Automatic annotation (TrEMBL):
Organism name: Banduia mediterranea
Segments passing through the bilayer: 55-77
GO molecular function annotations of the record: oxidoreductase activity
Name this protein carries in UniProt: Acyl-CoA desaturase
UniProt keywords, alphabetically: Membrane, Oxidoreductase, Transmembrane, Transmembrane helix
InterPro entries: FA_desaturase_dom, Fatty_acid_desaturase
Enzyme kind, highest EC tier: oxidoreductase
EC numbers: 1.14.19.-
Domain Fatty acid desaturase: 69-335
CDD domains for the chain: Delta6-FADS-like
Lineage of the organism: Bacteria, Pseudomonadati, Pseudomonadota, Gammaproteobacteria, Nevskiales
Length: 368
């Protein structure tokens, strides 16, 4: 998106921003004071479904013999891993169910079926991404250290590999998330950075060993003569989960219409300004209940970024109210089908592989 084609984002007065903050706070308070057994039962039901799906998948892979049973096993295990990562792990580790005071759903101790250690994710995602959403140079999710997704990132010849790196990140997404906390792209350049990587790699290495042993040693070994079938099935299930998670995450922040920020633009930001940045820096995916659950309700990325500690199934309930607030203040509410949102993400990734014209580059450099 060049500066010439960049959409003009609405600017609110301080009074309007304060009023917007009050209206969004009221939406949050109404939901959070009404949480109860239905919300608790939802997350417990998701855990039961994920476990049953995992048992079914691993059973079909271990004891089946036909390609059909292998395919069904991979489908069931993929479903379990997606549910566990998206609807359960992501949301529990956000603290959405801390109010239950159930140790099984404690945000500080839960760890998911993923090579990314829970303690690393709680910092790189909960702290860095959600506080600094779409601030170039602060939000570690902008490009994940290897991609150029906005003209606010200075072009470098390495970005010619944008399409290739994007494919690799999609297939290996859990690994990209796993090393996110160490910020390899930045820290590998300096001795101090490399020291930082070594000092902070402990949780990732420990979790990586645990996950590799579980999926590629323990379960294949238990299958005896079916070990290769189980190993390949686990590899396929992890790959499917990776690609799906990547697609949902990228549709949440990089489709056309989402806004990037500079650090200067967010100095002295009020709570209302923060709300405004979350609304303009996020995008939703339209779909049915199955889409919402399998995406961990990140199909309502706008509502999630406004209220990350609100139980995710409530996002659909408040979505019309948030949209109404946007309309009242003339703000965009970025929502579209999965095909539309992901299509625009891919177009951006391919387009940003190349430099802008000299005139445009100077304008961007001056702005950043």
């Amino acid at each position: 998106m060049t500066p010439k084609s960049r959409p003009k984002y609405p600017v609110l007065t301080q009074r309007q921003t304060a009023e917007l903050q009050a209206e969004l706070d009221a939406i949050r308070d109404e939901v959070m004071t009404g949480l109860g057994e239905a919300d608790a039962e939802h997350i417990r039901r998701m855990v039961r479904i994920a476990r049953l799906s995992a048992i079914t998948g691993r059973g079909l892979l271990m004891f089946g013999f036909t390609p059909i049973s292998w395919t069904l096993g991979v489908a069931a295990l993929s479903t379990a891993k997606i549910l566990e990562n998206m609807e359960i792990g992501h949301n529990v580790m956000h603290g959405q169910y801390d109010w239950m005071n159930d140790p099984a759903f404690d945000s500080q101790t839960y760890d998911w079926d993923n090579v990314c250690a829970g303690e690393d994710w709680r910092h790189s995602h909960n702290v860095m991404h959600h506080n600094y959403t779409n601030i170039v140079g602060k939000d570690v999710d902008v490009g994940y250290g290897i991609l150029r997704v906005t003209d606010a990132q200075r072009w470098h010849p390495k970005y010619l590999l944008n399409p290739v790196n994007n494919l690799a990140l999609a297939l290996l997404f859990q690994w990209g998330v796993g090393i996110h906390e160490m910020q390899m792209g930045t820290n590998l350049r300096t001795r101090k950075g490399r020291h930082s990587i070594r000092a902070n790699s402990g949780p990732f290495l420990k979790k990586m060993r645990k996950q590799l042993v579980k999926d590629y040693v323990l379960f294949p070994a238990l299958a005896l003569w079916n070990a290769p079938r189980v190993l390949l099935g686990n590899l396929a299930a992890n790959g499917i989960r990776n690609v799906w998670s990547y697609a949902i995450i990228f549709c949440g922040h990089f489709p056309d219409g989402t806004r990037m920020y500079t650090e200067a633009e967010t100095e002295n930001e009020t709570r209302g300004d923060w709300y405004l940045r979350q609304m303009q820096g996020s995008a939703n995916i339209e779909g049915g209940r199955l889409m919402h659950i399998m995406s961990g309700h990140l199909s309502h990325q706008i509502e999630h970024h406004l209220f990350p500690d609100m139980p995710a199934p409530r996002y659909a309930q408040i979505s019309p109210k948030v949209r109404a607030v946007c309309e009242k203040y003339g703000l965009p509410y970025n929502s579209g089908s999965f095909a539309r949102q992901y299509g625009s993400v891919l177009r951006t990734i391919f387009k940003r592989a190349l430099p802008e014209s000299g005139r445009t580059s100077k304008a961007v450099a001056a702005r950043v």
